[in-house]
Every structure is written in structure tokens, then in C-alpha cells.
Amino acid sequence: MATTDITDEYGTHAPAGQACHRCKQPIRRDERVRRGFVTGTDSGAPANVVYRHSGIQCPQPS
Questions:
Q1: Verdict on whether the full-model pTM lies above 0.85
Q2: How far is CA 54 from CA 12, 26, 31, 34, 39, in A?
Q3: Residues 6 or more apart whose Cβ sits within 8 Å of residue 30
Q4: Are 29 and 9 in contact (CB under 8 A)?
Q5: What is the pLDDT of residue 14?
Q6: 11-58, pLDDT tens digit by residue?
Q7: Which residue in 14, 59, 50 sits closest to 32, CA to CA?
Q8: Integer Cα distance of 33 and 8 in angstroms
Q9: Closest Cα to residue 12, out of 59, 57, 51?
Q10: CA–CA separation, 27 vs 20, rounded Å?
Q11: Given this model, what pLDDT does residue 15 score?
């Protein structure tokens, strides 16, 4: 069974149509978010880019 790891890369603005990886709520274009990668432990599996609300903006606590 693969496990996942989320690595924060930097703060940015998400592209249109993105949802927060943590709370699944839509991200507004003018919101600052954290960009990161979700990777599995399976070798050769591609990393997926994810966006998350920053700090207290996210309704789902970390």
C-alpha cells in the first residue's frame, strides 16, 4: 500500500478552478495559497501539484 507525503513548495496564487487539497473548498483567484506536491512511496509514480489555503484561511485544521 502506498503512502503519501505533502511537501509545501511556496506561496502563490492558484490557477482558476482549483480546490484546496485539505478542505476541498474552491480557491478564489485573488487568494494567496500554498503550492505543494503530493508524492507516493511507489517508485516512478509522478508527483501531483496541489494547492491549499494558507494558515487560518482553511476551514479544515491541519
A1: no
A2: 10, 13, 9, 6, 20
A3: 13
A4: no
A5: 92
A6: 889 999 999 988 999 999 888 898 888 776 666 666 788 898 887 778
A7: 14
A8: 10
A9: 51
A10: 6
A11: 92
